[in-house]
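Marked as duplicate of an earlier ticket. Keeping the data here for the record.
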Amino acid sequence: IAVRYSELESIETCLALKGKVEWVFIDNLTRLPIENNAFQRLRKHFKLCIVSPELLKRNEIEKTKKILQDNPVDAVLTDDIQAWQE
């Protein structure tokens, strides 16, 4: 079971489910929600999976990869495996 974190769901919603779910899917509907040390706060309690921007018809994989260099995740949900492996 997983919970979603995005511009629409608060980090508090995720943290309220610690101990009940193992994964947080980080959805970037229009942007990657990384403010207020969100990744670090979530990483303390969950495994993190980012939803790749190409699934939302946005060509921002390289931009997202750069952001994730400082905010590592455990998995990426993508249709473009090659772009994420480069």
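See parent ticket for discussion. The beta strands are 2-5, 23-27, 47-51, 75-77.
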